[in-house]
Amino acid sequence: EPEVTQTPSHQVTQMGQEVILRCVPISNHLYFYWYRQILGQKVEFLVSFYNNEISEKSEIFDDQFSVERPDGSNFTLKIRSTKLEDSAMYFCASTQTGGDTIYFGEGSWLTVV
Amino acid sequence: AQTVTQSQPEMSVQEAETVTLSCTYDTSESDYYLFWYKQPPSRQMILVIRQEAYKQQNATENRFSVNFQKAAKSFSLKISDSQLGDAAMYFCAYKGSGAGSYQLTFGKGTKLSVIP
Questions:
Q1: d(CA A51, CA B56)
Q2: What span, in angstroms and rounded, lies between the C-alpha atoms of B107 and B93?
Q3: Cα–Cα 20 to 30 A to A63, which of A20, A46, B43, B54?
Q4: Given an 8 Å threshold on Cβ–Cβ distance, is A99 in contact with B33?
């Protein structure tokens, strides 16, 4: 069964450093997402991406965050200058159409120290 | 804005027994999707079951079924013949169907323990 894959599975970074989280969505999917889950809290929407542009973003997704689809397969989330409160599990997800089920990757656990 | 409420932070069930997890939501839309996701200790988000609001029939996936009450805005998950592997966090989630309704809104989750 096709999967959403994410790398790295775990990254530790120093506060103020830039981080790039990578995702390979399911190949025939057209909508891509990033979600965040701070430890012990619920999953929160960050951003959705369709047709090479952001279609929706939450208030969490401020100027420190950016997304990119640099080629036909990868979808990345960049955090420019990490803060302690950015420590969380970041989930990439994708869906074939807007109304379809959203499938999640296994997550990238980011620890900012 | 849509909200999803899971009123049971924790639940437990004896192995082989049945348990029901509650979820209510608030929306002004008439058409939408509802989901239950399972998150085991590995923290992966695994789709359990999906329900389209326009369908009156409750969705079923093997031992998992839902009780969808559209008028009451209720969407509970029933797990039959509970197994040790069912122990996990369960999240209820809502997704609109209109243009631009791309995101999932999650509840806070219910931690399910399965007692051998």
A1: 33
A2: 6
A3: B43
A4: yes
In tens, the pLDDT along B13-28 reads 999 999 999 999 999 8
What tokens were used for B43?
Answer: 């923290």
- Residue A50 contacts B where some CB pair is shorter than 8 Å: yes
Cβ–Cβ < 8 Å for A67, A57 = no
Measured in Å, how far apart are chain B's first and last C-alpha atoms? 41
Cβ–Cβ under 8 Å, residues A43 and A36: yes
Chain B residue numbers touching A103 (CB-CB < 8 A): 47
Residue B92 near residue B105, CB atoms below 8 Å: no
d(CA B106, CA B113): 20
Residues A87-105 have pLDDT tens digits of: 999 999 998 876 678 899 9
User: Residue A59 — left, alpha, or beta (φ > 0 → left; ψ -120 to 50 → alpha)?
Assistant: alpha
Residues of A with Cβ-Cβ distance to B105 under 8 angstroms: 45
Long-range interactions of A64-67: CB distance < 8 A, separation 24+: A67/A32, A67/A34
| Assigned token pair, B100 | 């631009």
